[in-house]
Queue: 2 jobs
Job 1
Amino acid sequence: MDMAVLALVMLVLVLTVGAFRPDLNAGVLSIAAAFLLGAFGAGLTATQIADFLPSSLILTLVGVSLFFELLRHNGTLDLLARWALKPVRGDARWLPVAFFLIAFVLSALGPGNIAATALIAPVAMASSLQLGVSPLLMAIVVCTGANAGTFSPVAVTGSINTELMRQMGLSEPALPLQVFWRVAVIQTLSAVLAYLLFHPKAQNLNPTASEDRPDFSKQHLLSLGCMAVFIALVVVFHWPASYSAILLSVLLMVLRAAPSEKALETVPWAVVVLIAGISVLLGVLEHVGSLEMLTSRLSETPDGVFHGVLALVAGLASVGSSSSGVVMPLFIPMVPGLVPGGSERAWMDAVIAIDVGAHMVDVSPLSTLGALCLAALPEGPERQRTFRHLLLWGLMMAFLGALLVFVVLDLVS
């Protein structure tokens, strides 16, 4: 078998095993596969294989994750979420809107989609049961809001996206913000559709649920100040997100404003290993020509439907694998080959198609975001019903995301 084809088969095998055996980290499997392919098939040394490790990307992921784990463990993010519910008064119809906006803002401020959903989901899902709002709708708006905000330049996923674009040669400072707001708009359209389909009836809210809020302490105010500085450093002064986050993390730890040991323990190391391993394997695939072969197949897509098809392929690939850990590192580096000789705008549009397609399906309970919302519901018929409906909605998002991308990027642009 040709090495390029064999390497692609190995990648599919690794992702399939990782999907059906969640106890096996696909990143570790990828490193083993990369060594077998590289050393015994491609003639690479162990040092050459290790050179495929994306050190800058890993540093960004660790630094930004650590910073926001510190803010989560000292209660700053939780207080922000509870404080943000204050404007909701009198009508349960505004509750899904409020939770969408809270998830969006929290995710965009830096924690990213998973952390924002983990913070919001328990309160949101409990509120949906108490106030007669569809748990399906609440799960959709929380997950979609978090995903709409996660491509902020200061968020974890946004930082990964920015680094992948930089490696492609897209270094214009304004591009990450353009990707952010365009992805956010497309994601928001799906939330609006869900609201129109499952909107709640008018019902008075329980005022005590939103008024019981502790005050911000000195450590919380210091944390908020660090968050504001982080956003300014990355967005205004274009400092690297990795070093900005690490410097501010050190400040918080030295001043004992957050429990550093707990934060270090809960940094998503499994995701770090996943992205590192997949990147090493993709480096081997690129070396043996697998990515070039795959790129040539996708590049044959007609121009009039190119972005829609790209989003659909990314969405289907994301159903059984990590959106930011697998799909983005796999597809985004292919963009220069998919759009040869394209302008920065053309490359950016392709990145947006991949981003949207990969993340729209995250509402599924098979993905982390959907699973977090489902886990916040008590065991029983309502949870089982929500699981079925959420699974169907998540799978539909692969096609709806492709349709929205087709309309926005293929028809309108």
Job 2
Amino acid sequence: MVYVKWGLRAIFWIAVLAFLHYTLPQHDIARITDTYEKRVNPGENALFWSNAATGENVNATGRDVFFIQTFLTDDDPMIYRNEDTGWGWPPYFKFDTANLQAEASDMMSKKSAGSAQWVAIRHYGWRNEFLSIYPNAVSLWAVEGPDVRLVPWFNIVVLTLLAALWWAIRVRWNRFWERRGRPEGGEWREAAD
């Protein structure tokens, strides 16, 4: 039974960490090579796409999604989708998809040494080629070069607050069970009599 308990705890914490890794913003330094629009009809992987109700016809058979093609600093290709998140989850309240696509188109550059323009791309989500999952670009801005280091202050603050909340709940939970499990000496004597 101990193995089952530890297995369930491990599954719970893996799910929590996966949720946080998917939802919290991440930053990539990349070079934008192309932007395009594609008609998409999410199927089995619809969980990883934004809500279709954000400014679109919900009954449509497909929808147009913007994509941003990039190459990361290690020359690996990375494709981002560019969709509004609206009022849904995750709460990025992104309503400027067309503006972000225009900014990305303006920052395109080729691989030639002197003219490469590097950008920082804030996004959430994962890239999985097998399941056709793309991270959603939230914002982008020009940076000086591929060696720029960005400190994820927002993630540090959120994770610290979540750890403090977990610790506070855990301490109170343990105190509750200590008080409940160990009654005062007088109560033990009365129960024994």
